[in-house]
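U., I forgot to send this yesterday:
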Amino acid sequence: MLTASQIIEKYIEFFEKRGHTRISNSPLIPQNDPTTLFTSSGMQPLVPFFLGEEHPQGKKLVNVQNCFRAQDIDEVGDNRHTTFFRMLGNWSLGDYFKKEQINWYWEFLTKAIGLSPEKLYVSVFEGYKNIPRDNESEEIWTEILKKEGFSPKEKIYFYGADKNWWSRAGLPEAMPKGEPGGPDSEVFYDFGTVHDKKFGEECNPNCQCGRFLEIGNSVFMEYQKTEDGFKPLPNKNVDFGGGLERLLAAIENQADIFKTSLFSPIVSEIEKTTGKSYKENVKAIRIIVDHLIASVFISGSGVTPSNKEQGYVLRRLLRRAIRYGKQLGATEIFTAKIASAIIDNYSDSDPQIIDSKKTIMELFTEEEKKFNQVIQEGLKVSKDIISNLTPIEPEKYSKLMQDPDKSELFRNIYRGKNTNLIKEIDLPKSAISGATISGPQAFDLYQSSGFPIEMVIELAQDQRLLVDIESFEKKLKKHQEQSRIGGAKKFQGGLADHSDKTVMGHTATHLLHQALRDVLGDKVFQTGSNITSERIRFDFSYDRKLTDEEILEVEEIVNEKIEQNLSVHFEIMTLSKAKEIGAIGLFDEKYENDVKIYFVGDYSKEFCGGPHVEFTGKLKRFKIIKQENIGHGQRRIYASVGAL
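Result:
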């Protein structure tokens, strides 16, 4: 049976034989991208090429990309969702289109990796407003399925834009002007498990009951959003993405991806560490596995826990994993031990992670020690809450706790669904009220002290108290909705804002980067950026506050280069050539691919995807607004450009 690394090899080989060039993976932490914290898909770095720019390595590309999706954190816990995953991708930039893509992917699934055609189902775009139904894809699938001896009507499903349309912004109406998108066709694997009717009377490929699993999505990127609707892109493009972890689940016919050969060794290590079985603690162990894998790869990219940006996400992942570990009974520092197992398990497909093993384990240990102190503070807060409540009488509470599902029991008390039980044990409303940890109190313990609701329930049980879960869940839902709205643009990926001021700021970061190196030394490297039309934010490696004199010197250098009106252009060159000329950037040395280097006169040479102004004079003036420490040897500068 194929391993994860063997699937990668077969996929790359399959498309290389069909004229594709393997492109190097983009860093998990994007550089020079002001709107995203993480690389969340293989296509994210390729947006300029979908819009018509010529790719230096041709029109047919393939790779496997490490991805992280922060918006999926709250989804983890079922049998399929993960925040970190490897995405297999192949692209056509105006070369082949639907017929080749659909036939090739079917061939890869059924011939190259041996999936049974009987287990495969497909979905097609049914149309949306003025965007027509995808009859061409239906015809291609019909021909394939008939040759295999299947009835197309039983295998092809049509869905609207909410399921079979892809853009970084989601639905067509949510797409900003200039954004590319298009209909897609997905392939699903049928595990044949029994349908759970709580997800609907009839099962279908997009049902969430667990029977079907999406294993590949061919996006036909052929439209661009305009003020009046949509127009055709310069080229008809193909953007395919398929999750490696899901393909492995299909190959092993394992409906629970956490039971596949990729995850099971990590699950076993957690079982040994906590003394608890996966079977009886499915959700908690899934969360620990996913969050620690994601944390390994994020910290392996140079991110450290903090209260901002990528560091905040890393801290949230680690602390959530630690919470669930404590809930399972882990009494000692355990995350470093699990991290070691993760690194060993991923070393065949991601060997570069081994070099960071010692650093990652030390970082996990330090963060877990810090969080243990936070938990102790949370226990103090919970004691203050509990001290103002009146426990329910032991005999009555014991009868109440006979219900095995404590969360549902507590929830129903505040829905008025336990009327008979409450009457039976003679528990008046005043007693319930006096023994209740309120929803806002539970949410404060969750938000400020990191206590999951399960931990709050356990604390309540120890003191013969109740928890208003109904109110807690409403407050949590409102918080999550606000977070999603606020984070939608941040995590969608790509340069969403191409305004003149943002492009000016983007170019200014190249001058700022080199000026900082001139003043502070060559050990300074960019670690992140966020550029809007209002301001520049630039993160870099440095272990002390810059003096006023150093700030002034950096400003003067940048403004001198602006006044010189240097030309800005890019050149395509080999990786070795880019290193030879001293270009700044993170280069993936796994493949000797061509890279794109932007030059600002003969002053700055830096790996970047654009866009930029043509001459530095357009920046007018550069001003550093403030600096701040963001921890672990990193600093942040805020600046502005334009008519100051």
